[in-house]
Amino acid sequence: MAKLILSMDNLVLKEIPLNKERTTLGRKASNDIQIDNLAISGEHAVIVTILNDSFLEDFNSTNGTFVNGQQVKKHFLQNNDVIELGKYRLKYVNEAVQQASQADFEKTMVLRPDMMRKAAEQAVAGKPAEAAAPAMAPPVNLAPPIHAAAPQSTPVAAAAASAVPAPMGAIQVLNGSNAGRTLDLVKSLTTLGKPGVQVAVIARRPHGYFLTHVEGAKFPTVNGNAIDTQAHELQDHDVIELAGVKMEFFVKT
């Protein structure tokens, strides 16, 4: 479990486990982490934690929120990042991420600098050979057709149809050194991008997949159009561009 180590003048004050989805920081007593100091706004910032990932967002505070000496509005926290609020320091510690191998492509795909250098290369042509599945929109029934010998109105047929899981989504890299590589979106949250440059997440929800901007001055684009601050629902064969890398989202059939 990730945690914060609160200190001031190199003196550790306490450790705070990030065991909630939202952990608020500020001067007011209503915050999860209250720091009673005039340099800190009443509602200063929030840390959103989903699975093993945590994201820091500043609440338009008066004096700003800094991470490793740089002022941020939104930031994808990494192990040993230091959040600075006035004279106070909050060290982010996430041992689970520290111990995880970067080769764990099924959990998180972080785009390497060499992929960015080759971003200008022509996108690799070709989409999955299988026929495109219908675009996801709630509700969608992608159950395979029931054999003609089994009447669809029977309870057995109805039970079989209801047991079919929701369609699986995946992304395929279209350019750079990893062109052609695919990633099944089996996790609740998949982080994409390059920390410090541009980061986004794809959330898997019961009714579809949603892309959300997390960090960076530029927002990701979908089919050439920049998304906004709201979660963007992905459709079959949408092309995402993030940190100079193009990738195609598709529904596996």
Could you walk me through the main structural features you see in this protein, from its secondary elements to its overall organization?
The chain is mainly beta. It is 7% helix and 40% strand. The protein has 3 helices and 22 strands. The strands form 4 sheets. The protein has a 6-stranded antiparallel beta sheet with strand order 2-1-11-10-7-8, with no helix packed on it. A hairpin with a 2-residue loop joins strand 5 and strand 6 (53-58). The longest helix is centred in the middle third of the chain and has 8 residues, at 155-162. It is elongated and about 55 Å long. The model is unreliable at 100-164 (pLDDT under 50).
Describe the global form. elongated
| Mean pLDDT level | 76
The major pleated sheet works out as: 6 strands, antiparallel
Counted beta strands? 22
Whole-angstrom Rg? 22 Å
Instruction: Write the element-wise H/E pattern from the N-terminal end onward.
Output: EEEEEEEEEEEHEHHEEEEEEEEEE
Q: Give the helix tally.
A: 3
**In percent, how much strand structure appears in the residues?**
35-45%
Specify the structural class.
mainly beta
What's the end-to-end separation, in Å? 35 Å
Strand order of the largest sheet: 2-1-11-10-7-8
Fraction of helical residues = under 10%
- Given as residue ranges, the uncertain stretches (5+ residues, pLDDT < 50) are 100-164
Strand and helix map with partners:
Elements: E1 3-8, E2 11-17, E3 22-26, E4 33-34, E5 45-50, E6 53-58, E7 65-67, E8 70-72, E9 74-76, E10 82-85, E11 88-93, H1 95-99, E12 109-110, H2 113-117, H3 155-162, E13 169-173, E14 182-184, E15 189-194, E16 198-205, E17 208-215, E18 221-222, E19 225-226, E20 232-233, E21 239-242, E22 245-251
Parallel strand pairs: 3-4, 12-15
Antiparallel strand pairs: 1-2, 1-11, 3-5, 5-6, 6-9, 7-8, 7-10, 10-11, 13-14, 13-22, 15-16, 16-17, 17-20, 18-19, 18-21, 21-22
